[in-house]
């Protein structure tokens, strides 16, 4: 296993563990999702260089665009739920309580 592969795998696992353990607030979940997307972006950016496959070069930019859209929608949901519920805790967002 190369050092870059190890770093990317550990960054992805840390983001996944953060998403699993720190789901108290919406903002912490969004930050963990952004960490996952960043590690995937770096991995997809280095993949064509490692395997000399130039047919997959637009994939990182497409994923980066989706990641920016995800961040925008997530922050809009954060603002909307904070205004309606008064808190940004994920526990208070159950559909059965609304």
TrEMBL record:
It comes from the Eukaryota. It is a multi-pass membrane protein. The keyword Mitochondrion applies. Its main location: mitochondrion. The keyword Membrane applies. Its EC number is 7.1.1.2. GO terms for cellular component: mitochondrial inner membrane; NADH dehydrogenase complex; respiratory chain complex; transmembrane transporter complex. It is found in: Mitochondrion inner membrane; Mitochondrion membrane. Keywords: Electron transport, Membrane, Mitochondrion, Mitochondrion inner membrane, NAD, Respiratory chain, Translocase, Transmembrane, Transmembrane helix, Transport, Ubiquinone. It catalyses: a ubiquinone + NADH + 5 H(+)(in) = a ubiquinol + NAD(+) + 4 H(+)(out). InterPro entries: NADH_UbQ_OxRdtase_chain4L/K, NUOK/Mnh_C1-like. Belongs to the complex I subunit 4L family. This is NADH-ubiquinone oxidoreductase chain 4L. The gene is ND4L.
């Amino acid at each position: 296993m190369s050092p870059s592969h190890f770093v990317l795998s550990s960054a992805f696992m840390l983001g996944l563990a953060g998403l699993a353990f720190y789901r108290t607030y919406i903002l912490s979940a969004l930050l963990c999702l952004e960490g996952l997307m960043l590690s995937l972006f770096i991995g997809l950016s280095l993949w064509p260089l490692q395997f000399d496959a130039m047919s997959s070069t637009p994939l990182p930019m497409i994923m980066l665009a989706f990641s920016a859209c995800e961040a925008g929608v997530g922050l809009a949901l954060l603002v909307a739920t904070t205004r309606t519920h008064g808190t940004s805790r994920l526990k208070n967002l159950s559909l059965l309580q609304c």
